[in-house]
Structure formats: structure tokens, C-alpha cells
Amino acid sequence: MNDTFHSRPRIALADDQRLIVESLSTVLRPRFDVVANAVDGIDLLEKIQQYSPDAVITDISIPRLSGLDLAKHILSVTPQIKLVFVTVHLEAAYIRKALQLGVLGYISKRASTTQLMEGVESALAGRTYIDPLSQKSLENSANDRAPLTERQCQVLALIARGFTARQVANELSVSVRTAEFHRAAIMDKLKLRSTAQLTRYAVECGIA
User: Fold this and answer.
1) Contact in structure between 13 and 21 (CB atoms under 8 Å)
2) pTM for the whole thing?
3) How many CB atoms within 10 Å of residue 170?
4) CA 192, CA 4: separation in Å to the nearest integer?
5) Residue 91 CA to chain centroid, in angstroms?
6) What is the spatial distance between Cα 190 and Cα 180, in angstroms, rounded to a whole number?
7) pLDDT digits (tens, 9 = 90+) for 72-125
8) Dihedral angle sign, alpha carbons of residues 144, 148, 152, 155
9) CB 111 within 8 A of CB 78
10) Which residues have CB under 8 Å from 142's CB, separation 6+?
11) Residues 6+ apart with CB under 8 A from 8
12) Disulfide engineering: 169 pairs with which of 97, 145, 176, 202, CB 3.0-4.6 Å?
């Protein structure tokens, strides 16, 4: 049953590892009402509808519906909910995509209890919080990977859609040699080695 008034923020948790959920619950309960624990993405969506939490804490990797897909759905249907990822995935592409979707907190599972609480409270206040380990990943990525040019983004988007070099050339009205040059430059800049890696990067960064 949903309360019309509650004095403490209501939190829903989701992680497929019960020990993680129990640990998070123990840390959060002194300040928040933990109203639901979910074991997968579908379970979480059902409990959000049932309990109307103020914030949701979930892993980015969760069964039946990924964290990024969850974020898209939750924030499009219930944009008032504050979403926080607590995860082992510190790849910069995941962090950027999460922030792009509107996730307010990105916290490593190696973060301290203090950092977790700060992240949740920041999210509830509508502020973005990235813990130091995740922030370091972003900074290292910015140093290692120079941003793509507009033309390189166009080429990468087409590669992610399965276009061959000739099809990319036709689409962009350039020579096949130029299309191949752009592909090689993108792979060198991003330190990637295959079409599959290029496609994953494009999807995770919202380019595809």
C-alpha cells in the first residue's frame, strides 16, 4: 500500500546478489526507509509500481533487464524517481551513458559507506554524484581517448548499423578509401580492435 505521506525517503534496491542487497539495506536503514528488495529488472519494475519509492539503487548489470534499459524505462515513466547505480562496472562508456540517461548517482561497489550515503543523499536532492573511483575512470578515459570528430561519429554510427566500408562511402558521398581511413583512425583513437568493439562503444555512448 502506498502512503500519501512519509517522513523519510523511500528506497528500492535491486541486485541479483542477496548479500549485496542485505548489506545495502543495513547501511541505508538508519536514514532511509528501504521499502523493496528486487532480484532482477522485471521484479524491480513491479516493486516500483507497488511501493512508489523516492529513489532506486540498482546494479548496472542485473538479470532480465539491464541497468541501462531500466534507467530508460524508469526515467521515462516515472521521472521523479532518483536513480543510483552501485556497480563493479567502472568503464567510462557506461558512466557517460548512465549520466546521459539521467542517472544521478554512479558509485563503485568498492566505495565507502560514507560515499554511498553521500551519493544517495545527493541524488535525492537532485544533484549528480560520481564516487572517486568512477570519476578517476572518466578522467583516465578522457586522457586516453581523444573525442571523435563529427565525421568520425557519423562513420562510427554507420559501422554500428552494419554498414560496410563501401556502404559508408556511398552514404557519406566519400571514397571507399576515405571511409576506410576514417574507420582506421577511429579504431586507433579509441584503442579498439574489432567491429564488435566499435559497435559496443557506439551503443554504450549513444552514438548508434
Assistant:
1) yes
2) 0.70
3) 14
4) 51
5) 10
6) 15
7) 999 999 999 999 999 999 888 889 889 989 999 999 999 999 999 999 999 999
8) positive
9) no
10) 92
11) 31, 32, 33
12) 176
* DSSP state string for the chain: ---S--SS-EEEEE-S-HHHHHHHHHHHTTTSEEEEEESSHHHHHHHHHHH--SEEEE-SS-TTS-HHHHHHHHHHH-TTSEEEEEES---HHHHHHHHHHT--EEEETTS-HHHHHHHHHHHHTT--EE-HHHHHHHHHHHHHSPPPPHHHHHHHHHHHTT--HHHHHHHHT--HHHHHHHHHHHHHHHT--SHHHHHHHHHHTT--
Residue type, 53: P
Chain position carrying cell 559497435: 199
Amino acid, res. 206: G
Which residue reads 535491486 in cell numbers?
14
Three cell numbers, residue 110: 568498492
